[in-house]
Amino acid sequence: MIGEVTNVQKGMIEVRSESGEFFRCLLRGKLLQKERTEKNVVAVGDRVLFERLHKDQGIITEVLPRDKCLVRKGAGKKGRHLHQVIAANVDQVLIVVAIKDPPYHKNLIERYITAARGSDLDVTIVFNKADLGLSEETKADIQKYRDLGYRVFLTSTVSNLGIEEVKSALQGRSSVLAGSSGVGKSSLVNAICNSNVRTGEVSDSTHKGKHTTTSSQVHLLPDEGRIIDVPGMREFAISGTEGLDEAFEDIVELSAKCRFRNCTHTVEPGCAVRQAVANGILDERRLQNYLRMKTEV
């Protein structure tokens, strides 16, 4: 039988068959052995071959080749050298941030964009909780992302602002919702799917979100689209620099004007990138994030 992995918990994998039945599956021995050298042999969104054992139980015998995936570098000492597939067989990433509570971080947005473009995934940025009010700085940030060519939505699950536009962007697509805890991803899923996913709050003391989505979950849309809601991630280590130039296309264009072809944009004379920072054209924070990401992999 062929199925799609819709949820992964420790020791148990949920698979939806082509007929729409759900099975609780384990891995066959050879796949269990692969887990010793790979971060995640099976990821949400994977297409798998499995055998039915008893009622709603089964065993996965093979993971079919993956298409495009959202990937990050594994966390922790043991997994730092391994790549972790966040969502398999997707074609776009919706980066969800909150206008405030918790505040958004542009460095993290740029990391998501780099990972997405490195896997040739389309990028959409969703500024949620718009009902809390937009500062002038946030309005400027939104315009900058649009100027860089990204589709940006303003949404509110309180007033339903932008929900229909997001639904339209998801039609017929395989999408992954990525963002920090507390930004309202689960609330967005509820509004989009008319479901009842548990939602969380934001800590008053730290202004950081509390995890409500504890494992990745596939949600099917009525138009054959699907969204994968993944747990909130406050950090996102990129697994490669393939998407870096696309994520920082403005810096790459400026670097073509540097005096030296191998300019590091740090101390060299005639650096067009540093000059753009001095002239207020380029944000110093953005340049430092670019340089940091370029050397960390």
Explained architecture:
With 297 residues, this protein is an alpha/beta fold. The chain folds into three domains: 2-63, Nucleic acid-binding proteins (OB fold (Dihydrolipoamide Acetyltransferase, E2P), Beta Barrel), CATH 2.40.50.140; 69-229, 3-Layer(aba) Sandwich (Rossmann fold); 248-296, Ribonucleotide Reductase Protein R1, domain 1 (Orthogonal Bundle), CATH 1.10.40. The protein is 28% helix and 26% strand. It has ten helices and 13 strands. The chain has helices at residues 29-34, 76-79, 106-118, 136-147, 163-170, 185-193, 244-247, 249-255, 272-278, 284-296, and strands spanning 2-9, 12-17, 22-27, 47-54, 57-63, 69-73, 83-88, 92-98, 122-128, 151-154, 174-178, 217-220, 226-229. Helix 3 (106-118) packs across helix 10 (284-296). The two termini are 39 Å apart. Mean pLDDT is 89; it is low at 198-211.
Radius of gyration: 21 Å
- Count of helical regions: 10
Total count of domains: 3
CATH class of the largest domain: Alpha Beta
Order of helices and strands: EEEHEEEHEEHEHEHEHEEHHHH
Going across the biggest sheet, name each strand in turn. 10-9-8-11-13-12
Instruction: Using the coordinates shown, work out and report the CATH topology of the largest domain.
Output: Rossmann fold
Average pLDDT reading: 89
Helical amount among residues, as a percent range?
25-40%
The class by helix and strand makeup works out as alpha/beta
* CATH architecture type of the largest domain: 3-Layer(aba) Sandwich
Main beta sheet: strand number and arrangement?
6 strands, mixed
- What's the CATH superfamily of the largest domain, by name? P-loop containing nucleotide triphosphate hydrolases
The geometry reads as globular
Percent strand: 25-35%
Strand count:
13
